[in-house]
Design goal:
The chain has 271 residues and is mainly alpha-helical. The chain contains eleven helices and three strands. The protein has helices at 2-14, 33-46, 71-78, 110-125, 147-152, 157-172, 176-179, 185-202, 209-226, 253-256, 259-270; strands spanning 60-61, 89-94, 97-102. It has a three-stranded antiparallel sheet, with helices on both faces. A hairpin with a 2-residue loop joins strand 2 (89-94) and strand 3. It is globular and about 65 Å long. The termini are far apart. This is Reverse transcriptase domain-containing protein. Pfam families: RVT_1. Residues 1-184 form the Reverse transcriptase domain.
Length: 271
């Protein structure tokens, strides 16, 4: 049955435009919901003053049948026309999880509240129920196999380095392109001390976090530049020379040190 579903899925996909629903980030290569949402938030904050105000969190999600190959594609098609109605709001989707973001200026929340109401009406008209139950994320549990214990068994440095890469580095660099740019100098030094302590245990030189961040910014940026259907592709515009990219105009330090500004700077340094 799944083989037949894959044939139907491939047939439907071949008939769809590559630019279909650019704000649906699930089931698509080279898409990052967190990066897009963070850039949108920092761009909004860059337009005005940061009053350090925050609202309560409301999680809206709907369900899709599990175990069916066609479910992701059919659900994306079904929710294709669920889009924002105001230029100051966006609706970002990751599978059946939906986020409504809006720029609220001068305490005028009308456009944002109207967008929420629009989403609620759209779900009612399309027979979708909003699930407002909070999602519980279990706390992270550190690995139970200390590298020091492994070193006592006189394991080769290559094995110790593989353990570090799988259990520690994978955590340190998780989504590093999103958060590392805006870390303070003290934060970076504290994280780097973790790397240096593991170097003494593994007796090998390990890549520092700044180098990893720089390389991943370049790799991710090149993928976005090559994908004209990516919702953030427009941020990478070439100058007249055709060799360097235009830097983003920023007012706040947070936006200046965020991923897209740093990625453009990294690409220009390569050129």
């Amino acid at each position: 049955m799944k083989c037949f579903e894959k044939l139907v899925r491939d047939f439907i996909t071949s008939s769809l435009p590559a630019s279909m629903d650019p704000l649906q980030f699930a089931y698509r290569h080279n898409r990052s919901t967190v990066t897009h949402l963070l850039h949108t938030t920092l761009t909004h904050l860059d337009k005005g003053k940061d009053h350090n105000l925050s609202s309560s969190t409301l999680t809206l999600s709907t369900g899709a049948p599990q175990g069916c190959v066609l479910s992701p594609l059919l659900y994306s098609l079904y929710t294709y026309d669920c889009t924002a109605t105001s230029s100051s709001t966006i609706i970002v989707k990751f599978a059946d999880d939906t986020v409504v973001m809006g720029l609220i200026s001068d305490n005028d929340e009308r456009a944002y509240l109207e967008e929420i109401k629009h989403l609620e009406n759209w779900c009612q008209e399309n027979n979708l129920l909003l699930n407002v139950r909070p999602v519980l994320i279990p706390p992270y549990q550190p690995p139970k196999t200390p590298q020091r214990r492994l070193r006592d068994f006189r394991l080769p440095s290559k094995v110790l380095r593989n353990v570090y890469t799988c259990t520690i580095e994978s955590i340190l660099v998780g989504n590093i392109t999103v958060w590392f740019g805006n870390r303070t100098k003290q934060d970076r030094q504290a994280l780097q001390r973790v790397v240096r302590s593991r170097e003494r245990i593994t007796h090998t030189e390990l890549p520092d976090l700044q180098t990893i961040y720089y390389k991943r910014c370049q790799t991710k940026a090149r993928r976005i530049v090559k994908d004209p259907t990516h919702p953030n592709n427009r941020l990478f515009s070439l100058l007249r020379s055709g060799k360097r990219f235009r830097s983003l105009k920023t007012k706040t330090e947070k936006l200046k040190r965020s991923f897209f500004s740093q990625a453009i700077r990294a690409l220009n340094q390569r050129n």
